[in-house]
Specification:
The complex is a heterodimer of chains A (about 140) and B (about 220).
Chain A: H1 3-6, E1 24-32, H2 39-45, H3 51-59, H4 65-76, H5 91-103, E2 104-112, E3 119-123, E4 126-127
Antiparallel strand pairs in A: 1-2, 2-3, 3-4
Chain B: H1 11-14, H2 22-33, H3 35-41, E1 45-49, H4 55-63, E2 69-74, H5 77-89, E3 95-98, E4 110-115, H6 124-128, H7 156-168, E5 169-180, H8 185-194, E6 197-207, E7 210-219
Parallel strand pairs in B: 1-2, 1-4, 2-3, 4-5
Antiparallel strand pairs in B: 5-7, 6-7
Helix pairs in contact in B: 2-4
Classes of the chains: A alpha+beta (about 140), B alpha/beta (about 220).
Chain lengths: ~140, ~220
């Protein structure tokens, strides 16, 4: 699961849940796949994305210590808590966002509903958001 | 638009996942025919519901590679996996999510929505007595039935989606929906008008034993 995908996921379909967003993300295993950086695309996509979930994703620490070191060094400091203005002129930040949103692939982990605590596992890179009949 | 390679999918995959057929190719042809419109629309988020093999969203993802985010959902984990593999085989960026329709997606976020629903007319019992079973070993046992069995008028799943459409599509969003004549497309067009959507028969095609349509649906205000 790419972190760009994470930005669109909600647990709102659970009965009684109001917003269900952002989901609490836990990363147990991730891989980084380099892809071509397209600053225009990142900038154009931003209005569609929720900044608090982008910021939140950048703060997540993989549970594995070795991955933790590299991940922290990479991102926690780089993504500001509030979306800066004129982001299109800040190519360095767009590059960081590109890396965060499109190059990090969460292979194992989980998403948790912020209101009910319902856990959705991520296995082989695919989040399982399917609900049981009695949950909807 | 290139037709994606599917040589990585085996007969064993098709035991669990719908094999691309004439209906899939009609939906691909409809997208190809509407590429000027899609280029103009500049969609940021494209989503296919019930992506199965993933052939359709992969073709679109390749075409829109540098300008759109492409996601696919399916209730069947084997379909999610097949979609992921089809995207990888074709060098496309598609993320698969296991969920029912667009249940897990933020409201009104989807710019291009694709759906080739289970459209075959069956008894409702055929749908209801089936329970999706992740442990199911063979097609005849059950999971594949969800890829085609549509219940009364072949509309059970389609009708659920249409009810949710206002919550799924972005303000400029468009839906391409595959239908069978027995699904009563005129009735669906009327129903959507009542919900303030404009629906047109965008393409149609006779294939052996079936007459298929692609409905193109947009908001009246857009």
């Amino acid at each position: 699961m790419k972190l760009s995908t994470y930005n669109f996921l909600t647990s709102m379909a659970i009965k009684g849940v109001k917003v269900g967003f952002p989901l609490k993300l836990t990363i147990n295993k991730k891989e980084v796949v380099e892809t071509e950086f397209n600053p225009t695309f990142v900038e154009r996509l931003l209005p569609k994305l929720d900044w608090s979930a982008i910021y939140g994703a950048a703060q997540v620490n993989p549970s594995d210590m070795r991955q933790k070191m590299s991940f922290q060094a990479e991102l926690t400091e780089d993504i500001p808590a509030v979306q800066p203005e004129n982001i299109g002129e800040n190519e360095a930040l767009l590059q960081k966002l590109h890396h965060l949103l499109f190059e990090i692939d969460v292979l194992e982990g989980q998403l948790e509903c912020p209101e009910t605590g319902r856990v959705f596992p991520i296995t082989d890179g695919i989040p399982n958001m399917l609900l049981n009949e009695d949950e909807v | 638009m290139e037709t994606p390679h599917i040589d990585h999918l085996s007969l064993e995959d098709y035991e669990h996942v719908y094999e691309p057929a004439e209906d899939s190719f009609l939906l691909l042809d409809a997208l190809e025919k509407d590429l000027d419109y899609l280029d103009e629309l500049q969609p940021r988020l494209c989503v296919e519901l019930g992506s199965g093999s993933g052939v359709i969203i992969t073709a679109l993802a390749k075409r829109l590679a540098s300008s759109s985010l492409c996601l696919a959902t399916d209730i069947n984990p084997k379909a999610c996996d097949a979609t992921r593999r089809t995207a990888a085989r074709n060098g496309a960026r598609v993320s698969a999510i296991r969920c029912n329709l667009a249940d897990a997606l933020r409201r009104r976020s989807v710019d291009v929505l694709l759906f080739n629903p289970p459209y075959v007319v069956t008894s409702d019992e055929e749908l209801q007595t089936q329970k999706f079973d992740s442990q199911s070993k063979s097609a005849t046992e059950g999971n594949l039935v969800f890829s085609w069995a549509g219940g009364q008028d072949g509309r059970r799943v389609t009708d659920i989606l249409l009810k949710q459409l206002d919550d799924i599509l972005s303000p400029r969003g468009v839906l391409y929906l595959l239908l069978l004549r027995e699904n009563k497309p005129e009735e669906i067009i009327k129903y959507l008008e009542g919900l303030k959507f404009k629906a047109v028969k965008f393409m149609e095609r006779r294939i052996p034993g079936e007459y298929l349509y692609i409905l193109k649906v947009t908001r009246c205000s857009s």
